[in-house]
Amino acid sequence: MDAILGVLNIMAITLVLLYGVGAFVLPGRVECVMRWCGAALALGQVGAAGYLWSVDWRFAADVVLVALPPLLAAVAFAPPMGGGAAWRRPAAAMAALLHGYAIVSPPAPPYVVDALLMPVALAVGTGLAWLWQHRIGDRLRRGVRVAVAAGVVIGLVLAGVVAGSVASRLPDAANMAEHGAVDNGGGANAGHGGHGGTDISTLTGPRDREPDVRYTLTARVGRVRLVSGETIDAWTYDGTLPGPELRVHQGDLVEVTLVNADIPAGVTIHWHGLDVPNAEDGVAGLTQDAVPPGGQHVYRFVAEQVGTFWYHSHQQSAEQVRRGLFGVIVVEPPTPADVDLAVPAHAWDGDRGRSTALSVTGGTPSTGVTRHAVPPGSRVRLRLVNADNQPRAYAVTGVPFRVAAIDGTELSEPTELTEHQLLVGGGGRYDIVFTMPPSAVRIALTRDDNTDSDTTPTLLVSPDGSGEARPVAEGPVLDPIGYGSPADTGFGPDSTFDRTFTVLLGETITFYNGHFGQRPTINGSVYPNTPAFAVRQGELVKVDFLNRSFEDHPMHLHGHHMLVLSRNGESTTGSPWWTDTLNVAPGERYEVAFRADNPGLWMDHCHNLEHAADGMTMHLTYEGYHTPYEVGSATGNQPE
Ligand code: C2O
Ligand code: CU
Q: For residues 463 and 371, is the Cβ–Cβ distance under 8 A?
């Protein structure tokens, strides 16, 4: 898929250059170049589009409906041997340009307007180009002609840059729930989520009784030294990297007081994977205001889900999480394992560059070997947390093990694995369990897209905390789609869905907030033009994720867990696979479903937080709710 997309882009650009040069620069006989090379490239493009279509129509729809018609026009207009009519060259070049534009900067669905605009743009552009070449250009001396042409081109480009840059500026203050197009997913109109109805700031956890556990987390700037020696200019909760590991019991009413000592831009805490009431979700500008230096905010929620979760700031999250404003929160089961350890992995920007470090429950991270003593015979649970943007693979060597949970949800009857790698996407969590053998167990990273450094951290669990790491046994990567046994989930692929949404992950070249560059897109758009998925409480919702880009996108829905129904057309055959952060790799298609049972306004975004900061965010909005908060530079709230 990546390869086909690459080919599609390269051929489109080649065609534009070829036709542009043929029409406007090279005098004389270039007809054969335009004809035959053009035809060959067009054939290639049609083939590539056909391939995309064969995988899924939604991968190909914009190419077929918007980009291919001008391509065919370009080939048809290419002048025959001997020159042909004077309009042919500019028309062919213009058509090639439109094709190239539609490929490099794909339109947003439903594509109808773009498809209709193509012939109009072609006619106008051809007319102007022809006028220039054969009516105006003719009358000027060569030097003047070149100067005027260059002036016009430069002027147009500059005007385009300024207009694009200005138009893409994010507003100083905006209501997040009012952005973009509302998508009703084929269901009844579930409104706008913008005005009226219930104020989501009233959707708090219980405020009327004593909490079972209380924590205070203080966000501050500070230097921290890793065990392996690197110094980090960090932003921390409570001065440690990661922040303190919070451990609570199922059913506890948890109260966390967030204090901001001196993080200039303000902070929040989002409880990643915990489906808390909307007002406790910690998104600056959507569910609360960012907490300024000297300020504080109290979160309260009942820990209903047992499992491994993490918390992090959702104010300028790309930067704040990277610099350390995150930690692990575990909701312990009624009968925990004998030894229960969380193992977060994060790439730190230290004085020796950027490298990944592992830590173990409460310990300071190390980019080297972290040792931990565990008595043989103990039942061990390790909670692997990928607190970064990109996937990591772990190899477990030295003991047969099971994957007990994914993204904080227990799997049904997981079977024993030996020498398997576990691929954990950005923001994702895998819990593994095993019985401690009399010899050392090694957890090593076998793939890490979060750093270029070749130091790979290792966790060595052994009876006395010493012992040698045996060589990593890589083995196949576990595929959750067929792991464990099916169990009842209340709904599945054959259910009737109230709404079905499509999320086409792609990329484009565009302006975003005044800056030009390549941007990841959702349905061809960047925030705030991305869709808001509108639902009503209680509905059963299906979402199709399709990745037509060159990068992984770990898609995270706040406040809900999604049940994976299928991947690339293949249904889940193993344990129910619930996820809150689903890594969608290039070319992959997933169908997921969830019950809309947690009302409010929720973020739904790529958890590659750099992508989110570039506009890869959208929302899930329940009918009848609105937020009193705003985002934008004038509000102090910048969730990404
Ligand atoms: Cu872990 Cu919206 O984030
Ligand atoms: Cu992404």
A: no
CB 18 within 8 A of CB 95: no
Write the pLDDT tens digit of every residue in 255-267: 999 999 999 999 9
Which residues 6+ apart lie within 8 Å of 314 measured at CB?
268, 269, 270, 281, 282, 283, 284, 603, 639
130-134, 419-423, 432-436, 577-581: least confident range: 130-134
- pLDDT for residue 192: 66
| Residues with Cβ within 8 Å of residue 488, at least 6 apart in sequence | none
Nearest to 108 by CA among 506, 500, 606, 617: 506
Ligand 1 atom nearest 612 alpha carbon: 2
| Secondary structure of 124-190 in HEC code, one letter for each residue | HHHHHHHHHHHHHHHHCCHHHHHHHHHHHHHHHHHHHHHHHHHHHCCCCCECHHHCCCEECCCCCCC
What number does the ligand 1 atom closest to the CA of 283 have?
2
Q: Give tens-digit pLDDT for 102-116.
A: 998 899 988 999 999
30: nearest Cα among 81, 76, 75: 81
Distance in angstroms (rounded) separating the CA atoms of residues 137 and 129: 10
**Residue list, CB under 5 A from ion ligand 2:** 520, 553, 606, 608, 611
The CATH homologous superfamily to which domain 203-330 belongs is Cupredoxins -  blue copper proteins (2.60.40.420)
Q: Is 619 in the pocket of ligand 1 (CB under 6 A)?
A: no
Cα(566) to centroid(ligand 1), Å = 24
User: What's the number of CA atoms in the CB half-sphere (13 Å) around residue 204?
Assistant: 14
Q: What is the rounded distance in angstroms from the CA atom of residue 329 to the CA atom of residue 615?
A: 28
Q: Is the CB of 558 under 6 A from ligand 1?
A: yes
0.85 exceeded by the pTM? yes
- Report whether residue 607 contacts ligand 1, using a CB cutoff of 6 Å: yes
For the chain, the average pLDDT equals 92
Least confident of 269-273, 456-460, 507-511: 507-511
Homologous superfamily of domain range 338-478: Cupredoxins -  blue copper proteins (2.60.40.420)
Which of 50, 181, 129 is CA-nearest to residue 523?
Answer: 181
> Which pLDDT belongs to residue 233?
96
CB of 553 sitting under 6 A from ligand 1: no
Q: Is 24 exposed, middle or buried (0-12, 13-18, 19+ CB in 10 A)?
A: middle
- Which segment of 87-96, 236-245, 426-435 scores lowest on mean pLDDT? 87-96
Report the separation in Å between the CA atom of 640 and the middle of ligand 2, taken as the mean of its atom positions.
Answer: 13
pLDDT at 467: 79
Give the start-end residues of each E strand in 457-538.
Answer: 458-462, 499-512, 515-522, 532-535
Which residues on neighbouring strands pair with residue 540, listed in sequence order? 595
DSSP secondary-structure letter at 587?
A: T
Smallest-distance ligand from the CA of 640: 1
φ and ψ at residue 519, rounded to 5 degrees? -130, 140
Q: How many CB atoms lie within 10 A of CB 608?
A: 27
Handedness of CA 74, 76, 81, 85 (dihedral sign): negative
pLDDT of residue 27: 55
pLDDT digits (tens, 9 = 90+) for 354-405: 999 999 998 999 999 999 999 999 999 999 999 999 999 999 999 999 999 9
Residue 514 backbone zone (phi > 0: left; psi -120 to 50: alpha; other: beta): left
> Under CATH, which number does the domain 181-199+488-626 receive?
2.60.40.420
66: left (phi over 0), alpha (psi -120 to 50) or beta: alpha
